[in-house]
Amino acid sequence: MNFLPLGASWTQTDRLLVFHTPLGADLMLAECVCIREGVGPAREHAGFRIELSALCPRADIAPQQLIGQPVRLDLQTSGSRTERRPFHGHVTRFERTGANGGFARYRLVIEPWLAFLGHRKDSFVFQDKTVFDIVDEVLGDWQGQGALVPAWRWEVADRSIYPQRSYTVQFEETDLAFLRRLLADEGLFCWFEHRADDSSALGAHTLVIADHNGAFVDNPQAHIRFTQPGATLAEDSIDRWAGARQLGVSESVAGAWDYRAALRQRQGASSRIDNAETPIPLTATDDAGQYAWQNSAQGERRLRNRQQAIDAAAKCFDAEGTVRTLAPGTLFRLGEHPDHDLDDDPDQRFVVVAVTHHARNNLAEHIPQAIEALGAVDGDGSAPVDLYRNHFTTLRAHVPWRIPAHNAAGRFVFPRPRARLLGAVVVGPGEPTHTDRDLRVKVQFPFQRGGCAANRNAHPAGGNNAPADDTLGVWLRMATPVAGANWGGHCVPRPGQEVSVGFLHGDIDRPVILGASYNGRGNSDAAGNRQAQGDMLTSANAPAFFAGESAEPHTHGASLSGIKTQQLSASRSGAGGFNQLVFDDTPGQSRIELGTTEYASALQMGHLKCQDDNARHQSLGHGASVHTRASAAVRAGSGLLISADARSGARGPHLDSTEPIAQTQEAQTLATALADVAGKQNAALDGDAPARALSANAALQSAVEVMGATATRAGSASSAGEFVAAQGGTGTVPAWSRPRIQYAAPKGIAQLTPANAVLVSGKSASFTTGHAGNWVAQANHSLATRDGIALFTVGRHEGGGPNTETGIHLHAASGKVSTQAQSGPIRAAADKTVTVASTTASVNASAKGHILATAQGAYLKIEGGNIQLHAPGAVRLKASQKNLTGPASASPAGLSFPKGGDPAIADCARQVFDEKFCVKHEATGEPLRYFNYRIEDDSGQVLARGMTDEAGMTSRVVGSNAQDLKIIADDD
């Protein structure tokens, strides 16, 4: 059948619906239509959706001729036959639903340009941008895409209340889904305005984005009457009106944890609905997530928006009628309704938030043959509907409109994408490390596209969203095993490292680094990676300790574990100096090592091994080892015990000095006994204290007391309410009462050096040996004291020793022996014979006064140039020859001592000046413990420097004359 001769009947003039397409005027006749539009964002459509059935005398129209193209449907209004309301959009679905003899029926779906955003899924990072910047950027990407001409307009009361969003991520979601949730999150809503023109685009439709009811405009039919169904009026009217209420909360309360401020920010908003209209006061308490708002003002704004959405849904009105000008975002005054005629003027004004139009052209009257041949639109043969009718939802104009956050099931209407665990790469400005004060770092995700993207793809918009540097990305925290107030553990990821990122509450905008991951492929039996630098400037990171494959030093079954750092300059190569803590769990060879490549310094304990990176080389011994090519120091403020006295299981109190105390007590007993004997034998010096009170014995006794001191430690509260947990570690333990260094070994101590050895004691020094003591010097041996020297020996030989000589022996194998008393007498006495002999020369005796030799009452006296010889008995002079000559004299070789006035004697005799000082706080007078000081004389010469002890005392300063000294804080 051919319907082309229909002639004048095939026209759109004066029809209720007029359909315009790029294919030409009157080619397609609108048959019937369903139009859904509303104030969004809405899940059902992208602002509006038009489902149109159209007739066409051509059955060969290809879908690609109209898909994506702009079209316009005009709806005749009650104003006049020429006053039409346009609906402009793009064809998103086109199908032929029937055909007969070249005549066809087509079904079209027409949507706004915004609907096309629902067909592109993207991932993108927006940083430091407001919602206006983000929306403008996303919508701007669609400019010039095909036949689309995106147009939008902001109707915002005050832009300044919207903060700059530090980090917003579109993640694996369409542009439309992203914009929906973003607008709803900020309390923004939108609708479309349509315009008709004669251009090739046939008109335009503009997205209006607003945040206040003041953006709504009056409907062209500003006053709408309420009538009974079926009434015939000159103007369009409403014939069905029903108010609807639903239970809602009267207060919204939410809290957000702000980790930067370390506090929970709580905000609330109350309903504006009259409490009398609320049967039960309900409060919704929610956790808004991590740092959901920047400050209290933002929190208050968000909670207010949420409560306004609840209030808007709590009371609305569903209506039906024939008002063809009804459009989302338009206002009207309802008249002649019995429930509202007595309302105040503001309560009589309403805003349309959603409307569904049903309309049809009466084509069956003009082309009945075509309709009959193609069948009814719905195919069921039902009676035709009204030419036009609508159903709409409205609420009072003074009630703020907001999009509800939750649906009837309690789920988010526009939820954020649920982020899973993602990999990322740490980025920076090109330095070995990039972090802030709180050890946060920046990362780039593989989904980002741009110049250094993981997928090597540029973003369609042309922007560089993957620069792999610090210009994009926010500071992210790094999760650590433990974090406390100035305590915890951390290893800051460095640029190039791959990390695993989780998201707090599953929120893609709240990332946190959970840990780092190795990547690439490590070398076989060698340190390093087979891979070079990867995409996103990723460094190839292979484990430092691994199982090995074939090379002997590496095949240890992954028995090594621990922590190994890397010098910053070699962070990417891993070939620089490092620090490490190694745990070696090889069976039977357990070991722990703490070391650094700096000066080859390391501490090992257990089965000592030579380790080079992952290779375990030869054994070095057992126990503990400390080595370094630089200096080393051991400082112990309360005492240091160096002992070779073993303990069972290497256990016991760390200052257990049982053996040193016993040895010291033995030395004290021996010294006391010998000193006592010496005193009884008149070997003591004038003024010496009794044996037990000698300074040497006092020092030994002090050592015993220091090493024998103990301390008791137990859990106790120092103040009311203080929590104390003393689980173990209580009791009495050795604790030296004064700081000292104690050496002890059961089999000997040797201190050897090929150079000089110095031993200095500020007070007394005691050298005690249970058996022989040897002092040997290759050159000279000098012993000098100020007050006196007492040499005493018991002189009794006991068998067992190789040397049977007893007493005191002064022997000089060569050279001379000189004994002088420069200001006093010399007394030499013996219980037995005294022999003075010269084996090869002579013996000289001289005196300035006289020489007297006596025995048994006889004497020989030489005095004043005379010789006197007296004897109680006979005096015999025997010689083979006697020669008596005249007077003569002789004098000994010159022998002189320094005179009393000699400066050297005076200096030697002068009292040596020495003193210790107590350093006190100038204001409080309290002694300054462990205070760094230096002591200078008037000339600025430093005489001593050090640290005060626990009593605030300095070391002893010794000088040969009295002088003024200065004690100065030493910062060097």
Summarize the structure in short.
This protein has 972 residues and is mainly β. 10% of the residues lie in helices and 30% in strands.
Return the average pLDDT rounded to an integer: 84
* CATH homology superfamily name of the domain at 125-347: Baseplate protein-like domains
Distance between the termini: 112 Å
CATH architecture annotation name of the domain at 125-347? 3-Layer(bab) Sandwich
Q: Name the overall outline.
A: rod-shaped
Ranges where pLDDT stays below 50 over 5 or more residues in a row are 1-5, 379-384, 719-726
CATH domain class name of the domain at 125-347: Alpha Beta
Rounded Rg: 54 Å
What does the secondary structure layout of this molecule look like, with pairings?
Blueprint: E1 17-20, E2 29-38, E3 48-56, E4 70-76, E5 84-100, E6 103-111, E7 121-129, H1 131-140, E8 152-155, E9 165-174, H2 175-185, E10 189-196, E11 203-210, E12 217-225, E13 238-245, E14 251-258, E15 263-270, E16 283-290, H3 296-314, E17 315-321, E18 330-335, E19 349-360, H4 363-366, H5 368-374, E20 388-396, E21 422-427, E22 442-444, E23 483-484, E24 487-488, E25 498-503, E26 511-517, E27 560-564, E28 579-584, E29 591-596, E30 601-612, E31 615-627, E32 640-643, H6 658-680, H7 695-707, E33 710-713, E34 731-734, E35 741-744, E36 850-855, E37 858-863, E38 866-870, H8 903-909, E39 913-915, E40 932-936, E41 942-947, E42 957-959, E43 966-969
Parallel strand pairs: 8-11, 12-18, 14-16, 32-35
Antiparallel strand pairs: 1-4, 2-3, 2-19, 3-6, 4-5, 5-6, 7-9, 10-11, 13-17, 14-15, 17-20, 18-19, 19-20, 21-22, 21-25, 23-24, 25-26, 27-28, 28-29, 29-30, 30-31, 33-34, 36-37, 37-38, 39-42, 40-41, 40-43
Organism: Nitrogeniibacter mangrovi
Domain Gp5/Type VI secretion system Vgr protein OB-fold: 471-518
Pfam families: DUF2345 (PF10106), Phage_base_V (PF04717), Phage_GPD (PF05954), T6SS_Vgr (PF13296)
